[in-house]
Amino acid sequence: MARGEQRFKCVCAYDGTEFCGWQSQAGGGSIQDFIEGRLAEIFKKKVRIHGSGRTDAGVHANAQVFHFDAEWPHGTESLLKAMRCGYPKALQISKISVAKGDFHARYSVKGKRYIYRIYEGYAPPVISRYRWSLGGRKLDIAAMNDAASALLGTHDFTAFSANRGNDAKDNPVKTLTKLEVSRRGKEIKITTEGSGYLYKMVRLLAGALVDVGLGKLSKGGLISALESKKRGNTFQAAPALGLFLDRVFY
Known about the structure:
The protein is of the alpha+beta class and 250 residues long. The protein contains 5 helices and 10 strands; from the N terminus they run βαββαβββαβββααβ. Helix content is 22%, strand content 29%.
């Protein structure tokens, strides 16, 4: 951080449908690209932002966190107002605060909460881009919660990860403190909190639990997959559109 600069911690929300994910892409089109473009207009120079983690194309966020360093003498309310101008409806900056110099949006994270949303039936158009619609299939929520309990605690979650090519050094041992399935009418929600997540881990957890709910996978089969510590095709990742990054804990 250069002399005279401050570190700004920001929270944003987005509908990921039209974006190619969080991380900057060579051809643009990511959430990071859009925010950095807006900051370049405000500060008249390139400003790099650092997010709490990546979200894939089509994944949404209620509270993604990022930080950047810049010199801004007009206060955070003024900066928030400037950053909110020129944004599409699918992306909103909700909060800005001044952080300590050693704060890092990614490396200071203590945990995250994700929510995966499912619709038992055909979701109405107004919410269909935010739900995995199951059509005529029915889920056994009790069986899903019973299986989910076996995944709580600290484990090697390699079986619930996908190969991103550059994540070989990511520690596969993670701690899940919450993994619950709830129902409200046809709306089904999977909520998970943990110390961290591997690439596509939440979507694979959701896909596995749905298979349990459909009777395609037993609790024992889920445990066997976990204990194998191997990536496989026992279950598939749930579609991106139902996933929300709900909160980042520091």
